[in-house]
Amino acid sequence: MPRAIIIVLDSFGIGAAPDAGDFGDAGANTFGSILKACESGAATRTGLRSGPLHIPNLKRLGLFHAAGIETDGGAAEAIHGRAREISRSKDTPSGHWEIAGAPVPFEWGTFPKTRPAFPASLIRQIMDDSHIPGILGDRHASGTDILREEGEESVRTGKPIFYTSTDSVLQIAAHETHFGLERLMALCETARRHCDPLNIARVIARPFTGESAETFRRTANRRDFSVPPPGETLLDRATAGGRCVFAVGKIADIFAHRGVSEVLKADGNMALVDATLAAIGRARSGDLVVSNLVDFDMVYGHRRDVAGYAAALEAFDARLPEIEAALDPGDLCVLTADHGCDPTFPGTDHTREEVPILAFGPSIAPHDIGVRTSFADIGASIGVHLDLGPGRFGTSFL
Ligand SMILES: O=P(O)(O)O[C@H]1O[C@H](CO)[C@@H](O)[C@H]1O
Ligand SMILES: [Mn+2]
Ligand SMILES: [Mn+2]
């Protein structure tokens, strides 16, 4: 029996979705903007990269075809197309769950762009149950900015930093040793419980190290406390069918550990590619590997670092031949994304975009699958490929 691999390039959208205007994202295009910035020289950084975007392998597979960009290159080598999201939000869990065949049929709770952003009753409940002396932040913010602004006071007072974004999230940053990593995780579990009635998708622990605003760094001990997916996912169906599901990076957290057999954690895109290759190496026939490459989003998209994003794409592209070489004759590997995060767009939030689908394997015949009406077509196709059936949502493109 064949195997399947999904690699989510977190935030790698390829153009505004038809409903992008509803999200304030008309005109956003993560891939297109990076391409343009590279072309014009705006994505040059000494010692990092320069010139036009160099992604020969993604190009060969059909990324430009999927994005509707004319190229002088030949025919695409992968099944190629793009997909729209039916879930009404542009966050990570919604995107991943829809890819896995469980779109979100309701609106998430979010916190207003006011100061304070969190309801006093919520903060009171969390404080009563966690013995913290108070909180800092209490607003919408970029996680790295707020660390510079509030980190030193947090260390001095022992008050953790609470912040949010347009996503359905409560993020809590605290120092790994001064506050304590385990204590932060316990605090997040408490917060998770009190966020449930507000329909908040995720509470995220954001531990950091360092001793001053200039040296604070967020660590790889980030942990997402997610509510479970709203329906049966491809991962659930695979494990129920006796298959092994390897979850690489934050996949297990995103799926609230449901439908996951083995967790492989790693820090940084290149280590995550290594972990993905390790999982492919261990997967047996009928198994599923699901991997998330978070740096595109967390380190470059939200930071609006277009040169960094371009360099990260080039670095991933250079690893693609290794991934292709790791595939057995019957395998199917799908590259896609969960939402956009255009590094040239105003603000620091995700952008509502269509995502690429590049599906390849030694015996997969390339063809154009056009614009898919749901990310769920990916899960449906993999379900068919793995002989698990298409699932409730989505139409197989195989
Ligand atoms: O600015 P940072 O802390 O990276 O936060 C980002 O990460 C969150 C979860 O992915 C998003 O909601 C966005 O706000
Ligand atoms: Mn994401
Ligand atoms: Mn994000």
From TrEMBL:
It comes from the Bacteria. Residues 3-384 form the Metalloenzyme domain. Its cofactor is Mn(2+). Keywords: Cytoplasm, Isomerase, Manganese, Metal-binding. Mn(2+) 1 binds at residues 10, 338-339. The keyword ATP-binding does not apply. GO terms for biological process: 2-deoxyribose 1-phosphate catabolic process; 5-phosphoribose 1-diphosphate biosynthetic process; metabolic compound salvage; nucleotide metabolic process. It catalyses: alpha-D-ribose 1-phosphate = D-ribose 5-phosphate; 2-deoxy-alpha-D-ribose 1-phosphate = 2-deoxy-D-ribose 5-phosphate. GO terms for molecular function: magnesium ion binding; manganese ion binding; phosphopentomutase activity. This is Phosphopentomutase. It comes from Fulvimarina endophytica.
